[in-house]
Amino acid sequence: MALALATSLSSVGNGFAYDDVPMIFENAPFHTLGSIGHRFVESYWPRDQGHALYRPLTTALFTLEWAVGGGSPLPFHIVNILLYVAVCLAVYALARRLVSPTVSVIVACLYAVDPVHVEVFANSVGLSELLTALSVIGATIWYIDRRTVGDLRGRDVALLSAIYALGCLAKEYTIVLPAILVAAELTIITDDRPLAERASALRLLLLSLTLVVVAYSALRIRVTGSFVAENPAIPLRDATYATRWWIAGFSATNEPVTRIRRAL
Question: Distance from the CA of 171 to the CA of which of 20, 45, 69, 123 falls in 20 to 30 A?
């Protein structure tokens, strides 16, 4: 916790930067608290930006943070710092279930000081990544804990499904959670029953998570007109996947390449 605070606390005095400016500072519809419900029927970027992303929970929180601070960036950064600390603690809690206490501390410390996370907690729009990380890690911890002592109960299924839904509404990356839970089941959980019997015991959870995916996908398509993410970067529109992967791994220090990587 101390390392997470030491790493992120200096960002509390930041203003709005990079994507914060068009997404929050210059996005007038986000400045009216009464319009917060509209975030769930609008795309992430303003329509004139042409990006088909759907993150209504994140944008609704942007509206709330703007109202609380009267347009000041301070509430945005305070929330991100607190969430970053929470994510680092969640990483420690997950590691504690997988490795020794000493290794768990090392893992959490390395995670807390990793410079790649700066853009996430220092920019206001990083809220979506923090919410996604917290939901995925938190759900995985809950799943491991409950499966360690037995089969899931109805309230466990309800809680995991709710976390999954909220995470997807924060950022689409959360959609991978079922695959992570399956991996945890196959590698971490000790259960001597045949796989078919174990799968049968988990059918309620699998059905519930499937319904979440279907509902989220339908809502996303309804709002954005597409299931895929934002439009491809113009320079890469006709590029092959091999070319895109090569560019993505070429150089993280080259700013033009870095911008292309973000667009992939």
Answer: 69
Q: How far apart are the first and last CA of the chain?
A: 33
Distance CA 24, CA 39 (A): 13
Q: Which DSSP letter does residue 253 get?
A: S
For residue 27 the two structure tokens come to 């996005």
Is the CA virtual torsion 7, 13, 18, 19 positive or negative? positive
Could you write out the DSSP letters of every residue in 15-54? ---TTHIIIIIS-GGGG-GGGGGGGGGS-SS-GGGT----
Write the pLDDT tens digit of every residue in 42-79: 888 776 665 678 899 999 999 999 999 888 989 999 99
**Same structural domain, 201 and 254:** no
Residues 170, 238 within the same domain: no
Query: Which pair of tokens denotes residue 100?
Result: 């020794």
Residue bearing tokens 């390392």? 3
Residues 202 and 244 in one domain: no
Q: Which of 58, 55, 57, 63 is nearest to 35 (CA)?
A: 63
Range of the domain at 86: 2-227
Are residues 31 and 152 both part of a single domain? yes
How many domains is the chain partitioned into structurally?
2
Q: Are residues 250 and 163 in the same domain?
A: no
